[in-house]
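Write out the 3D structure for:
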Amino acid sequence: MAILVVLMLILGIAGGSDAIWCICRNDASDNALQSALDYACGHGGDCSPISANGACYLPNSLLAHCSYATNSYFQKNNRAPGTCDFSGTATNTTVDPSSSGCQYPSDNSVASPPANTGISAGPTASNPPPPPFTPFSSAGDRPTARAGAPSLSIAIAVLALLVA
């Protein structure tokens, strides 16, 4: 029984993944998507891959470009709470949104340095930035245990030892 518990613990730790991305919600309005895109590109997100001829230009849609930009911003900010909200326009996912030829960064070390590509002129009077981000601005922003996370495996192993 103890060997089984140790094996479960080892497999849980080895199988855990910290990969998380930020994507724009497909039910967000075009104005909200554009505002999030402008903010992310203007505040440190690397938007060069979504410029014309960039690796992530296709699909050429506001939703796809918004997702790439907000994810870049999110990763550049070390996945800090509240940096993937954009006033409810974006959300976290553990499903890799990368596609053929377009790799979404999944951590800060992969994200390219910020570039001023001219994709967005930034906020204007007619297109202001989203409100400042606050940690845990919505229930969906709160960190939760991910399936396969080591803490869950440890809890199961301890519980199994106590029952045995």
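The CA atoms of residues 117 and 145 lie 37 Å apart.
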